[in-house]
Amino acid sequence: MSSGIVTIKPLDHTMLEDLRALFRRTKATDGCWCMWYIISVRDYHAGRGAANQRLFTGLMRESDRPMGLLAYVDGDPAGWIALGPRSRFARALGTPTLQGRDPREDALVWLVTCFFVAREHRRKGLAGSLLDAAIELARRSAAKAIEGFPTQGHKIASTDSQVGTEQMFAERGFEVVRRPSSNRVIVRLDL
Q: Stretch 158-171: mean pLDDT, rounded?
């Protein structure tokens, strides 16, 4: 686990500056704002950066469910997990990875789409702590289940690291539902 005092909170409008500070650490997160699985590829690339941030902020203010959880280490923003009802992630639902799901569950089943941990806090258990907190938030929010689509195996390409690993999910009781490709697995934990 990360050294220092770890606090994990559902994102609200008072924490946007902290999330912005965390996302500014890399070009990828500063441009994405966790919109990749929500909007079309064309809209995502057209809005990369400030427009995606505005879309994210608007969704956050409109939703009765948090867009994710923000982790702090000793009061500084250190990690993020994006999650919510599957129905929020329109683009992800249209991908081959999530075909085969029961669409009648899209409002009841939550989906973990993304992790980001600041470089100095990686490999210290913070992503696992974020996933633990996500499970609890989904449970408190009366979700039927929580799912993810992590990378299979132990070696992860940097382009796939944001979805987590099969092992991390398995350690928390998630079971494999499908293996839609050579590098992805759909996992589920019924709540």
A: 82
CATH of the domain at 16: 3.40.630.30
Here the tokens at position 115 are: 């992790």
Task: Name, in order, each residue with C-beta under 8 angstroms of 62's C-beta and a sequence gap of 6 or more.
Answer: none
CB 25 within 8 A of CB 84: no
Q: How many domains does the chain have?
A: 1
Count the neighbouring beta carbons within 10 Å of the beta carbon of residue 93: 17
Residue 113 host element (H or E): strand 109-117
Q: What is the pLDDT of residue 74?
A: 95
> What is the pTM (predicted TM-score) of this model?
0.92
Task: From residue 70, give the alpha-carbon distance in Å to each of 14, 77, 116, 168, 188.
Answer: 12, 7, 10, 18, 22
**What is the residue type of 157?**
A
Sheet holding 68-73: strands in order across? 6-10, 68-73, 76-85, 109-117, 145-148, 186-190, 175-178
Q: How many angstroms separate the CA atoms of 54 and 142, rounded?
A: 28
Please indicate, yes or no, if residue 1 is contained in any of the structural domains.
Answer: no
